[in-house]
Hints:
The protein is α+β, with helices and mostly antiparallel strands. It is built from 11 helices and 12 strands. The strands form 3 sheets. A 6-stranded mixed sheet has the order 8-10-5-11-9-12.
Amino acid sequence: MGDNAKTGLTYADAGVDIDAGNDLVQRIKPLVRATRRPGADAEIGGFGGLFDLKAAGFRDPILVAANDGVGSKVKIAIETGRHATIGIDLVAMCVNDLIVQGAEPLFFLDYFASGRLDTDVGVALVEGIAAGCREAGAALIGGETAEMPGLYAGKDYDLAGFSVGAAERDALLPRGVAAGDVILGLRASGVHSNGYSLVRRIVADAGLEWTAPAPFAPEMDLADALLVPTRIYVKTVLRVLREQTGLKALAHITGGGFPENIPRVLPKGCAAAIDLGAVPVLPVFRWLAKQGGVAEAEMLRTFNCGIGMILVVAAESAEAIEATLRDAGEAPVHLGAIVTSEGPTTIFSGRLDL
């Protein structure tokens, strides 16, 4: 063919580095191994992840599955190079959706897509995912890394998480919600993982740099204050389920806030009567509302406003459940009660402390 023969193209010439992907797998194997639990003890690398329900101790289980992402919160991580906690958010958004149905998270899988695979970023993300899995008691049994030049620009990436849990058939939630039940709230750690397109717009309009002191938490810079990871409520709720009776329903307060998430667990003819004055509004939400001129109704349907998880409990069990929550390190908030209603499914009184 001679010296002038054209060299054939490779996948690397097209922007995909198979060797980098293989290196990432090797580097994250110890992280994955650290999430093992009864039912899952295999190494990653197979075509599918395995889980043994019998070894996990279930007798008549119903499987519950959930998937989610982190949303545009990842843009803050990308723009600042701070990737350590985004994986925790990813796990939290999935496993909190499992526990609200009374399901113990069993295993987790992730999907990581980027334009160019940076193995250091990939490892940092999986470190967070593994930390979230350990906190939730879920095994990280597999995942997928996709390098797609031309689809993602620059350092951009996105994440998706998938988790499966199980509950005994007779323990699924919600069950038996009725007028007179008490509504308790568990506090959020911050903005969690919803509303970040609005958060980023407010920050941009304010002309603030990510490295500037956070106006609502001056001991931190703005990026760190907004990257505080979503709380994982699994172990707290599992403790209540195992030690108490009377827990009837749970609602994970994500996108849609109180007005859209609480009604998902209510039977027809019932509504949640919430005293907004009881909500422990975090300083970040006061700043967002003031800086962005965001109305209360918009705050309520966009953000958690300080409450990340709702519990609906029988009135006669409320005191004992609150005691268990406090013993677990929570500071539960008495938000209201379930009432009869043929109209609105959320009825608000009072005002948020904005």
